[in-house]
Amino acid sequence: MKNSYSVKSKLALLVVIFFTYFGFSQNNDQEQIKKLYDAALTQGKGYDWLNYLSNQIGGRLSGSVQAQQAVNYTKSQLDSLGLDKVWLQPVMVPKWVRGTPEFAYFETTPGTTTNVAICALGGSVATPSNGIKANIIEVNGVEELATLGKGKIQGKIVFFNKPMDPTQINTFNAYSNCVDQRYSGALEASKYGALGVIVRSMNLRLDDFPHTGSMGYGEQPIDNRIPAAAISTNAADLLSTSLLLNPEINFYFKQNCKQFEDVESYNVIGEIRGSSKPEEIIVVGGHLDSWDLGDGSHDDGAGCVQSMEVLNLFKKIGYKPKRTIRVVLFMNEENGLRGGTKYAEVANATNEKHIFALESDSGGFTPRGFTFDSSNKDFDKIKSWKPLFEPYLVHYFEKGESGADIGPLKKEGLILAGLRPDSQRYFDYHHAENDTFEHVNKRELELGSASMASLIYLVDTYGF
Predict the structure, then answer these.
(1) Active-site position among 333, 334, 359, 433
(2) E strand or H helix at 312, and its extent?
């Protein structure tokens, strides 16, 4: 009986200790997360950083003067935070230049023309100096080319008009289901003798802004490459309707873009060294380059300043991490992923131990949660943190994709994550002229920063 009583007493004591510790730990986490949100909403620097990136520097296409200005500016701002280390990581990036503004129209009868808004796709070749004018044929996606065959396509301009699916609540799914026509449409259409391609913009909204984005020719010889441009959604609908009335419409477009030799650029990196486990690295980042039509505020200036803000918030509340917290502003996500690839290459070569990487590359809108590329066991642990985010309406914790720049880091045991803001307005601005600072809401941006900092705090505190 005595031994039995002793065992029961010990078990009872362990239960009391466990729940006392768990309750204290949970309360401490709540307090730390509250501090992070409060600091983000009252002392954050991200909105001012984004203002400078957007309005003083502008679009930051890889290899451009503006991209280098952004490197210099963000490094100087990280230096000002008093981090343990800030440095530039060299990386060779492609240099593609748009040239003079593109011009296009369609001709219903000789001399009767209607101008339409287009922009060259990133990486496209130019048209001949006088432009291209030819009969245009509409297709609903890349797969339809084979159905039509060379006889109906040769000598024509192919008009890819597969729209994003409005029934998809996750707009990134709608994007994924039709972006192949933008990326590989020119390569595939050229196999059937097309002279050029015009692609419906990846945009759920009807407006007059053509949306650029990367496209590729693979290993196709330069002489066989055909020019590719995006057309605004309003213009795409007008052209499609006009083709129903008159299939013999001619389309004309002219663009002057050019690909140059690769040039040197940099990833911008800063870190707070861990106090007890400095060898374990947690990365948070976004991509510093953007397309050239707007100023890249949502894609991905927002993600960059939110990632910088994570370290700033830790400094503001006096939090000293156990593990090394590193911000990485990747160069060249938009048309090459060279920055992400280089970072992973160096990390592997130096045997760095990364345990977690978080990317923000879905716009500066209201945060809804995160997606995680992890094992089921690790995800179960992550889900246990979800109640801590519910007071901030950050409810979405799901397994899924993370971010393009951190993807090359992927290896067994490393958990990748992506911030998931509300996506309903993202493709209104994505890769377009209207991706500008005025369309970023300060409070939404700050809430995203706080959510990221809170997740990084929990990963640092509990590890995996």
Answers:
(1) 333
(2) helix 302-317
